[in-house]
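Hello again,

I reread your note about wanting to compare the complex against the isolated chains. To keep things tidy I'm splitting this into two emails, and this first one only covers the full assembly. Below are the input lines as submitted, including protein chains and any nucleic acid or small-molecule components. They are followed by the predicted structure of everything together. The single-chain runs will come separately.
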Amino acid sequence: MTFWENLRLALAALRANKVRSALTMLGIIIGVSSVILLVAIGTGLSTYITNQLEDLGGDSLFVMPGELEIATGGGGSGGMPGAGVGASKFTIDHLEDIKRNAKTIKAVMAYTENNGTIRYRGKSKIAQVAGVGPEYQEVRNQRIDEGSFFNLSQYNAAKKVVVLGKTVAQELFDQESPVGKKVTISDKQYAVAGVLEEKGAFGGIDLDNQVFIPATTAMRQFDMQYLQSFWIQSQGADTIAATKEEVEKILSKTLDDDQFSVIDTKSILGVISRILGVLTAALGGIAAISLLVGGIGIMNIMLVSVTERTREIGLRKAVGATPQVILTQFLIEAVILSLFGGLSGITLGILGSLGIRQFLTTSVTPWSIFLAFGVSALVGVIFGVAPAAKASRLNPIDALRYE
Amino acid sequence: MSSIPLLKLENVFKIYKIDDLPVKALDGVDLVIKKGDFLSVMGPSGSGKSTLMHIAGCLDIPTSGKVILEGENVSSLGEKELAKIRSTKIGFVFQSFNLVPRMEAIDNVQLPLIYAGIKTAERERRATETLIALGLKERLHHFPNQLSGGEQQRVALARALVNRPAIILADEPTGNVDSHTAKEIMEILTKLNKEGNTLIIVTHDPEVAKWTKRIVKIKDGKIEN
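Full-complex prediction:
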């Protein structure tokens, strides 16, 4: 009795009940494909966010108000963590102090954000008004579509100049060129210096629905006593720790420890990937429950099959099948059900993740495929053993008489 | 025909416990079957004739006593060894045919050969040969439900014969067919015996017993006469 003989027997038995076999497999198909799909979505999301954050530069640090272990971004403006917890006590003096005394930094920039209504000739648009430094364009690698970013002298003089995001520019100006025109932001007139290149959306937020004004202007016009946060670029990825220490030391001179936090992109990334990892595992776990249900379905149908085929089992035994052979036959049937289900589920999961790629970033990971395949084989064995053992233990005399 | 004892039962007891009460299904049976024998075991229901067939066919082992098949004591073998003996030395025919419904006639006949470990090509050749010998040339690829009762029993006979067993055991082989078909089956069995096969038929029907060379009557687990 070879393995191939057993395989042929099992396939013949499954073919005899096509609909039943297909329905039993469906449980495993749904389980496996949802595991693959959900893990693909989780992994894709994680990769996407990581890429976005890495665009900020692996050498970036943020100074947030309040005491934070880690801040994962309040406002989400431009993918840059916004105001943290607690009221800010940051001033232009702090900014200057860091600029002058931190030796390992390449750039430091103030960052504030407010919401404002931008008006032009009766049209208006509510957008985020970010107060930044003139370095913003360079350090964030922002391209200008039209005009130019505001310069250092405009910044120092707290001029009312604005750089529009693409969405704002399009909604207010349509085909007209905005450069040189005057827009009103919170009842004050600003000269449009330029329009930024389109950035797209991030996490459902339109990154182009933003305007940029000098942080100095923002403080004055929005009546802010303090700057919300600082954005620091270290000289390189290897000087991050040194920069963090330096900046903390500088700020400690005038601020209490609980009034500020210096956070680097890496630790934000770490937190986000931890959160997404847990999320992915949780989603995968929920999907795995359906795999378990599918396994129970296999066990159920195999038990029915053993009962139905009691006489056949008795006969097989009477003509020389050993208990071992009967056990193997039924086990192979169960494993075929779960493996075929697993393979179909993998195919469906991959197709599904390709299908939703239009809406979401997905990434089918090899480990999820191997895991799904392995688990479905295991499910077949685990849930197949009990019915197969039942079949193998049948007494041939009683089994032959079974009605 | 030679007179070597093919199967020998020596003082065989089989005791079942039903509700903790011992029931003697076989009560000291002695029986010798020689090669070429054509024997019918007769008795009313509950007489122990089925138990006798199960023990003679290595489907069951006695509580005590010896069963010697072709010189080998099989009375205390394990399930696996018994299965091996059944696949090579015993052919069974059942009252209700016991064909596997979703398998073609030829596949049903091949079953004992599968478990005896015979290769596919040889299996098919032997199954075809046996079915043709029993007049089922046109029925090789029919499913049991496409066959008449007589044809089904002939397929079952082919299955019992295909592994060239030392002994064929038939349990009420005519029990589920009409008298005409019963006659047909008994003619085949007689022919098989003439060709040298050893047959034991378990029956309660005297008409069937008449066809055999020897009749053994069993009652309350004991062989009469």
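For quick reference: Chain B touches chain A through 25 residues (CB under 8 Å).

B.
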